[in-house]
């Protein structure tokens, strides 16, 4: 629930960082806008985070997520989301990437229909990364974005760039560099507030937004908060109600039970839902962390054809299309492999298979992590989706039960899978602490969501006790400590991103893995250490 609007007052907003170079973004008016967002909406955010903790306590005590009784009427009644703008009618391939200057230009020029500029899973939220990202996006919107590489290559945005969609941080993250009345600000409100303050009117004038991807929601009330925030911002910026559009990632297990409710909460501005598969797997692990009968096999065995993931994606398609919203697919983790044509072809074949599954299931578009994958995904969608979208595929054949969404697939845990989880989590955390939010490891894209899977699996396998590898050797903490020490040594002496942070990352991963409770997010304790 919003508190009444107050006079613009930035007296109480403080910036705890050296903001030189960012004055054009951190103008007094922009800071006043942020302060106002905080005062109106942060109390509600805190209540919603408390509600998450209460629900998790219920799951830890043996409860399981379920469809809500109090919202049954939303699920059973007939209603549709608002009309989808022309610029978002065809979203067959969307490229995602961090808000780094060169990458933004490459993404806008990639041939993808949409570019999701990511302040979230693929960003390490240093003050410089987030604020430089705002400068880069402001320049992109103004049409002045250019870049000159150290090697002398010039970059500029070409004709017909991808449509820009921005993903702010989730509700759980504070931004320690901004406080209002002595309280830290929400990272989500900082990212959203600065972006709309500087760009909303220009984008609206061109009928190109502003458009958002909303991450990690767990309940319809969290979607309602975004709706209120956007409505208030539209009012302040004198834009028509519903100008700001949202696509919501369904990437938590609790949210899978509230897809209709989330669409309904945002029905005046929602454009679709997206299968954020990596965070969804992480959320399954975290939500059911206390349930020994629902442990997952090693992450290489948990693909989208696993029954619980197939059920979730089909329910998403059915729910979206019934309401006139797009059902977006997700990210295959494979990226191009240079210098090994056979390995590259095998990786591309996996991407093609994933996109084929998505388009045939009824998804209206998909994500790719790298410019070289745009054509790969587009070829499949062009062949199987000759229309701009497939809203008319209602998937009335689908019937998904609570049990199907919750059923753990069978599988095994190998020594290699255990070791890979240690390596990936260590290397990713080290890179993140060094300011890099997305890295290639063994030819796969690894970001905050994929690293969380590795971390949560290690914790579960070790804390439930008595588990064995496929060769029947016991899984125990001594093995974890040995693997962590070995990988820390290797990373320290390597040229991998984050090598200089190997020890800090190892200490964090060790503490999180040995702790009695699975920490809600890796990025919360890691953020305390981020320079
Ligand atoms: C779970 C989720 O949330 S998924 C969404 C979040 N994750 C992402 O967005 C992943 C984004 N992808 C990336 O960050 C990168 O592709 C990585 C880290 C996986 C691999 O990066 P690299 O090893 O640097 O890739 P590579 O060397 O092949 O890059 C080749 C070129 O493509 C560019 N490029 C690579 N990925 C992207 C991208 N996603 N967007 C724009 N440009 C890109 C590089 O900048 C480079 O440009 P240049 O030739 O002009 O110098
Ligand atoms: O954000 C996407 C995901 O898969 O997580
Ligand atoms: Mg995610």
From TrEMBL:
Its EC number is 2.3.3.9. Residues 23-71 form the Malate synthase N-terminal domain. InterPro entries: Malate_synth_C_sf, Malate_synth_sf, Malate_synthA, Malate_synthase_TIM, MS_C, MS_N, MS_N_TIM-barrel_dom. It is an enzyme of class 2 (transferase). Keywords: Acyltransferase, Glyoxylate bypass, Transferase, Tricarboxylic acid cycle. Transmembrane segments: none annotated. It catalyses: glyoxylate + acetyl-CoA + H2O = (S)-malate + CoA + H(+). Residues 163-407 form the Malate synthase TIM barrel domain. Residues 414-530 form the Malate synthase C-terminal domain. One of its GO terms (molecular function) is malate synthase activity. PANTHER family: MALATE SYNTHASE, MALATE SYNTHASE 1-RELATED. NCBIfam families: malate_syn_A. Belongs to the malate synthase family. This is malate synthase. It comes from Rhodanobacter ginsengisoli. The lineage of its organism: Bacteria, Pseudomonadati, Pseudomonadota, Gammaproteobacteria, Lysobacterales. The gene is aceB.
């Amino acid at each position: 629930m919003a508190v009444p609007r107050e006079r613009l007052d930035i007296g109480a907003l403080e910036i705890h960082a050296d903001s030189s170079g960012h004055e054009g973004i951190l103008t007094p008016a922009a800071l006043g806008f942020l302060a106002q967002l905080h005062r109106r909406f942060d109390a509600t955010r805190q209540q919603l985070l408390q509600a998450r903790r209460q629900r998790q306590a219920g799951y830890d005590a043996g409860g399981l997520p379920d469809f809500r009784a109090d919202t049954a009427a939303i699920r059973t009644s007939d209603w549709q989301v608002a009309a989808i703008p022309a610029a978002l009618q065809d979203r067959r391939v969307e490229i995602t990437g961090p808000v780094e200057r060169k990458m933004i230009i490459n993404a806008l020029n990639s041939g993808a229909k949409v570019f999701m500029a990511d302040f979230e899973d693929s960003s390490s939220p240093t003050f410089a990364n987030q604020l430089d990202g705002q400068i880069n996006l402001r320049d992109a919107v103004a049409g002045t974005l250019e870049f000159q590489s150290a090697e002398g290559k010039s970059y500029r945005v070409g004709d017909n760039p991808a449509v820009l969609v921005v993903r702010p941080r989730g509700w759980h993250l504070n931004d320690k560099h901004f406080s209002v009345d002595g309280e830290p600000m929400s990272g989500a409100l900082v990212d959203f507030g600065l972006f709309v303050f500087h760009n909303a009117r220009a984008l609206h004038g061109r009928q190109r937004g502003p458009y958002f991807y909303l991450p990690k929601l767990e309940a319809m009330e969290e979607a309602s908060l975004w709706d209120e925030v956007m409505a208030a911002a539209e009012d302040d910026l004198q834009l028509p109600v519903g100008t700001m559009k949202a696509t919501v990632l369904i990437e938590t297990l609790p949210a899978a039970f509230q897809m209709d409710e989330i669409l309904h909460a945002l029905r005046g501005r929602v454009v679709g839902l997206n299968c954020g598969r990596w965070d969804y797997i992480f959320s399954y692990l975290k939500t059911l962390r206390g349930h020994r009968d629902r442990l997952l096999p090693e992450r290489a065995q948990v693909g989208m054809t696993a029954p619980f993931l197939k059920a979730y994606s089909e329910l998403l398609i059915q729910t979206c299309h019934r309401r006139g919203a797009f059902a977006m697919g997700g990210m295959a983790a494979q990226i191009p492999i240079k210098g090994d044509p056979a390995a590259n072809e095998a990786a591309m074949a996996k991407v093609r298979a994933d996109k084929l599954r998505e388009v045939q299931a009824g998804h209206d578009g998909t994500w790719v992590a790298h410019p070289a994958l745009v054509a790969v995904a587009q070829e499949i969608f062009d062949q199987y989706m000759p229309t701009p979208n497939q809203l008319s595929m209602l998937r009335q054949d689908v019937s998904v039960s609570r049990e199907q969404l919750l059923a753990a697939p069978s599988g095994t845990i190998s020594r290699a899978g255990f070791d890979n989880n240690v390596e990936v989590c260590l290397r990713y955390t080290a890179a993140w602490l060094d300011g890099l939010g997305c890295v290639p490891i063994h030819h796969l894209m690894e970001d905050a969501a994929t690293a969380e899977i590795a971390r949560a699996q290690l914790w579960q396998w070790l804390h439930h006790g008595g588990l064995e590898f496929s060769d029947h050797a016991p899984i125990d903490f001594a093995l974890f400590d040995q693997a962590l020490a070995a990988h820390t040594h290797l990373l320290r002496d390597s040229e991998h991103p984050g090598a200089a942070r190997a020890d800090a990352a190892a200490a964090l991963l060790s503490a999180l893995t040995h702790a009695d409770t699975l920490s809600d997010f890796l990025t919360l304790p890691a953020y305390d250490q981020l320079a």
